[in-house]
Fold this protein.
Amino acid sequence: MAPNQNIPPLNDKSLFKQECYVNGEWIKAKSGKTFEVKDPGSGKLIGTCPEFSKEDTDEAIKVAAAAFPSFRKTTGRERARMLRKWYQLMVDNAEDIAKLITWENGKPFADAKGEAAYSASFFEWFSEEAPRTDGDTIPATVSGNRIFTIKEPVGVCGLITPWNFPAAMITRKVGPALAAGCTVVAKSPGETPFTSLALAELAHRAGIPKGVVNFITALENTAEVGSAITASPTVRKVSFTGSTGVGKLLMKQSADTLKKLSFELGGNAPFIVFDDADLDVAVNGAIACKFRSSGQTCVCANRIYVQKGIYDKFAAAFAEKVKGFKVGGGYDEGVTHGPLIHDRAISKVDAHVRDAEKKGGKVVVGGQKMSELGSNFFQPTVITGMTMDMQLASEETFGPVAGLFPFETEAEVVEMANKVDVGLAGYFYSSNLQRAYRVAEALEVGMVGINTGLVSDPAAPFGGVKDSGFGREGSQQGISEYQITKMVTMGGMGQPLQGS
């Protein structure tokens, strides 16, 4: 089917691809099956993508395995140049990438442009890390022995990414994999495949060797494709970003082949505002943290705790900001927030709001579906008087709903913040230096923002604890997820020097 025309024209129409990228070629599924991708804002058809099967996936894995022996022998500097060229092509085509993100994800175009730049930055960062994968020289405890280590690529990597950041979640995984010398099979999200396929086209133009990067798609067969990746003994590493439930399933499926794993899973971020915080700064930080991408991020504030001394002032100022939002299609002028991704997301958000109301919460802004705009729109919502027995206190909403919980003491709020199974990100606002250290150390999360609601940075190690997963993405640590450390011991090195 031809795509509809509810998108501003791409500057480069050849970036819109409706086939998978395997071994440097654009291919269909062997079965010929496809699935439809629709604009979450308008509900109109964007286009179709191949419905890959286990057979198709196995073939992509074989291609990546065939490319690995030669690619692993490239120097770090050579790989750096490839990534740098790919990065520059992303910068040069940033507007088109942003258009694709908005089209299939729904986020406002300004946000999509921010993601396009952020996603490119991972290729830049890891192009600089590629030549610096140093080993160590280790003093031996046995006289005459010498010990050193070598960092080697782990092998073929299976990468599975979500729909909420169609570009950034891919580059954050592909960048370090290629920098380390690995080859990849990347499973694109069925809801938002076209951004990833545009990145594949740019990889082709960047001269990434055939078989090194392979992009595959599936919707109905997603579980089948995931199982093929985890079951394959050829795949030596799996990186997944998504729900905790799916992560646990993939971990079980990977057990028989003992793969290296890194999982960035669900979150339920606490956002704490102490009495001594700068109120305006805290309100603005909470707005950015909670409502970015309409609350559809794994690190967005889900539970906002405000100390009783400033609770009413914070709630009033926060609600006033939310009243100024404009909801609509991502390309529309002045729109601050777009649609949710699908009807299941709307149903969950609505259920959380209705549950809070039933249990005594007061909706002061929003709280309703926006059917006049389309089936996937929901009003940005603020609820006061939240209590710990409400669903939002223990479940990740993943939508534009801000529940404000009152608290009295530091010890109380830390206990409340930690009373969940997950631990991805946490935030708090305070002008007390001693409290900053205490609370940062006490929060059971992998990332902490102090007086800021935005912590993502290619230089920062991104990841969680508890049911939010393990492993780190970005930063100097990110490349190590795609490497093994080989230890070498040389004996007989302590013989005395002979005279000439």
